[in-house]
Amino acid sequence: MNIGIFDSDRWEDIFSHMGKHKIRTFLTAFGVFWGIFLLLLLLGAGSGIENGVFKQFGGVAVNSLHIWGNTTTLPFKGNRPGRWVELTNEDTQAISTLVKGIDIVCPRLRVWWTTTTRYKKKTGSFSMIGTTEDLLEIEPIIIQEGRFINERDIAQERKIAVIGTGVRDILFEKTESPIGSFIDVNGVTFLVAGVFDIESYGGDRRGALETVYLPLSTTQSAFNLPHRIGWYSLLISEGFSAAGVESAVRALFTARHDIDPRDTRAIGSWDSSREYNNLQGLFTGIRLFLWIVGIGTLLAGIVGVSNIMLITVKERTREIGIRKALGATPFSIVSMILQEAFFITSVAGYLGLVAGVFAVEGAASFIRSQPQEISYFSEPEVSISVALAAMGILILSGTLAGLFPALKAAKIHPVIALREE
Amino acid sequence: MIEMTQLHKTYLMGDTQVHALNGLSLTIGRGELVAIMGSSGSGKSTLLNVIGALDSFDSGSYRFSGKDLHGISQKDAALFRRDHIGFVFQSFHLLPYKTALDNVILPLKYQASVGREERRKKAAAMLCRVGLHDRMNHLPAELSGGQQQRVAIARALVTGAPLLLADEPTGALDSATTEEIMNLLIEINTEGKTVVIVTHEDEIARRTHRIIRMKDGVVA
């Protein structure tokens, strides 16, 4: 049939009709353009905030559980409340052998009193944390120079230290490499084996970089904390829930340290997956909201197209009558109006789509080019699936925009239409 | 070609029923040149619209070349008009934003079998036939009334429809142009087309083979 969408005469009809009403066509198209442009911009901004917030997690394993001992609050088995739950190396062994669903058990011990670290004439007060090589699996640590703690350091209680870039900047000259230098911590000498940086971090970045990591065994002996463990960072195995592992570890500690099972405050914990999932839920809600707002804006554009097509049908009533008199079937009239609405929506929508993607990508590249990271906003993006969904909405809305006016046009009685002036 | 028996068509104008066709019966043979006359409101335009399937009728029988047209769908009516009827209107009814050539091409667009090039050729030939070979690319506004009516006649003839229905085709034209258009319609009839003209003018009617006079929705 010559009435199909590939009929060049039909396109000539559409273009000549639109050409007669340039401003109107432009404004109508702009409504759709703006709708899809804003939809993509909103979704891009949403993804930017989402990426920014999740980036605050940095490389912290999102399936990690952190658990430590507090003071008891209830009396139990002759023990008075207020007793400190002291975790030890035996707890490490017990967790590793008795609790299922843990990939990595990383014990940590912070020297809680103030220490002074000295290098030549410079001094500083930094966090001293004893740990194992497994910390690299849990924290977003990047080794800048040298190496991190290894198994032999632990086994041989080597006096080595891995310092943060913050420590390096305070104790060492800019031109100086700390590797191989000896630092003094409260009178104990440590060889600097490595310098670390961290990926962006939810907590106190500066504090995290002004930290010195020491082998756990060395920390226990050098600072007179025999067998002591401060807290555990546990990496949960796939297929296990952090909550389940947390219950199991709590039960183990409760039994091993004579804690009243009802005394939940005696053991402290932080479940990163719970935080992560809460944020995921929040962003699912935000995404939904942005889609609703974006589609609402797009719908306003579509209603504009529909409105203009209704006016067009009214204006072209006589023409439709003439076409019907010449043999146009109701279907060919419907398809003529639909095609015009669909053309305006598709072209304007596609341009909006392209402009939206460019705007989001432009913003992303601008942010990347900034020397300082912008807090809570990173890598705005529009995914292919979102672009495809937007295209789907366009096709659907283009059809809907034209359908009502087209059906109205098809119902026009030719005799009445021919009387129109 | 046309056989109508006891045709009734009633309009509702506000609360009043208007019997536009009130039991009308007539026949028009193939190749006839017929004038339909009557006072305003006598039903002549309604009759023309019913003949051309632009309008339906309530009861009675209308057969066109043996085919019963009672109760046909909108789509079938459109196809019937496309294949059998050429319309010429008093106010020409050309599309103002299309050239003379494009106006004549228009009905061919609704014919499935005619390609783009063939449409242009047929339309151009038809415009030459009505003496407008040098006005093909002009818009209607750039043509005189007589020329516009010639374009309309070319448009009515281009599909090869056997029946030409002209509703007051000279009503908007001066006497010299009326004469030209009438001559053209007679020529077309001589070439074998059946031509039915609704007119008020005796001068026009006198030049046809037969005058059908209408009064109150029936043939007087």
Please characterize this protein's 3D structure.
The complex is a heterodimer of chains A (421) and B (220). Chain A has 421 residues and is an alpha+beta fold. Chain A has 14 helices and 14 strands. In chain A, helix 10 packs across helix 11. In chain A, 38% of the residues are buried. The mean pLDDT of chain A is 87. Chain B has 220 residues and is α/β, with parallel strands linked by helices. In chain B, strand 7, helix 6 (175-190) and strand 8 form a beta-alpha-beta unit. The longest helix of chain B has 16 residues, at 175-190. In chain B, 48% of the residues are buried. At the A-B interface, helix 1, helix 11, helix 12 and helix 14 of A face helix 2 and helix 3 of B.
Largest sheet of chain B: 6 strands, mixed
DSSP summary, beta strand count of chain B: 10
Helix content of chain B: 25-40%
Mean pLDDT of chain A: 87
Q: Mean pLDDT of chain B, rounded to whole units?
A: 91
Order of helices and strands of chain B: EEEHEEHEHHHEHEHEE
Rg of chain A, nearest Å? 34 Å
Multimeric status of the protein:
heterodimer
Largest interface, Cβ cutoff 8 Å: A-B, 28 and 31 residues
Estimate the helix proportion of chain A, in percent: 40-55%
Shape of chain B: globular
